[in-house]
Amino acid sequence: EKGGYEHFMLKEIHEQPKAIIDTYRGRMLADQGIIKMAGVDDHLEKFLNADRIIIVACGTSWHAGLVAEYLFEDIARIPVEVEYASEFRYRNPIITDKDIVIAISQSGETADTLAAIKLAKSKGAFVFGVCNVVGSSIARETHAGAYTHAGPEIGVASTKAFTTQITVLSLIALKLGKAKGKISNSLFHSHLQTLQLIPKKIEELLAIDDQVKHIASVYKNATNCLYLGRGFNFPVALEGALKLKEISYIHAEGYPAAEMKHGPIALIDENMPIIVIATSKGHYEKVVSNIQEIKSRSGKIIAIVTQGDTTVKEIADHTIEIPETEEAFTPLLTTIPLQLLSYHIAVFLGRNVDQPRNLAKSVTVE
Ligand code: M6R
């Protein structure tokens, strides 16, 4: 059932190219320049007239929501707020019938997310679900939605659910950007072509597993790790840190790279591994200067860079290259080595990778 892999998590990491293709299937017709999504098409007026989109989710799904904030605002120019479902529901939030609430949940059973949806509905908002499990409570409770079609995710650490959530949300952002006239036809077409190449690029990345495993062997005894990213890759830094904590039990934090000097820089010494996402178009120069600041304080740097990078390579202790793509879609690639890094560290430490202590696959109590 693990398809020859030692753990479900590793199997699910490797399933991502196929899972993303399944997410596109029947929806993205790249050569014709069409995105078909019944859940959006049937309610297009609502989406086009919405004052803002509020995304509610927990954990990894919340991180996918943060990536979506960057995508929706950049591509479709719709204001977005991303909320932890647990905070949103108890805050007496301001919701109107001009709001669209998007609930993101792999399991479709997360108690806080379900309660947040019910609250939003009671205030008149239109609620759209992005779920993986077909027929789940959240899928049933929402007015419309789009399934991620990632297939069953068994490992408690979410992997393919995250990348397929980002895929669905990218399609929605592009669809709305086009319908609202916020993105040119040529950019729309080129984005579809770019998205279509992502699964192949993930395949390429999965082939560097041995390199990531080597890096994991070097840092497996670390007690703390910092993950830094900017822009589209800030949420990936959060996700990388969550993945490491939950399966290896090593304390990790994700931060927007520029926030480092507002506190976390005090933690840096020769024992601190810092994973920095430094893709070529993502505020590259600014991230490079963050990397220099880390180096001058003797921190150990593992950098995720774009193929062909030379500057970061000279400073970092390790570099992992990702294939070139549009900056907006880099989270689909930069996430992969971070998943593998956590996986290998957890295996080296003898952790129960698929069922980490104290955690459940779906959190059905608040
Ligand atoms: O099923 P959901 O997407 O609603 O679950 C939300 C979180 O419980 C989940 O993403 C959790 O953070 C994962 N274990 C992270 O890997």
From TrEMBL:
Molecular-function GO terms, alphabetical: carbohydrate derivative binding; glutamine-fructose-6-phosphate transaminase (isomerizing) activity
GO biological process entries: amino sugar biosynthetic process; carbohydrate metabolic process; fructose 6-phosphate metabolic process; protein N-linked glycosylation; UDP-N-acetylglucosamine metabolic process
Catalytic activity: D-fructose 6-phosphate + L-glutamine = D-glucosamine 6-phosphate + L-glutamate
Main location: cytoplasm
Keywords: Aminotransferase, Cytoplasm, Glutamine amidotransferase, Repeat, Transferase
One of the record's GO cellular component terms: cytosol
Protein's job: Catalyzes the first step in hexosamine metabolism, converting fructose-6P into glucosamine-6P using glutamine as a nitrogen source.
The protein's name: Glutamine--fructose-6-phosphate aminotransferase [isomerizing]
Organism annotation: Polaribacter pacificus
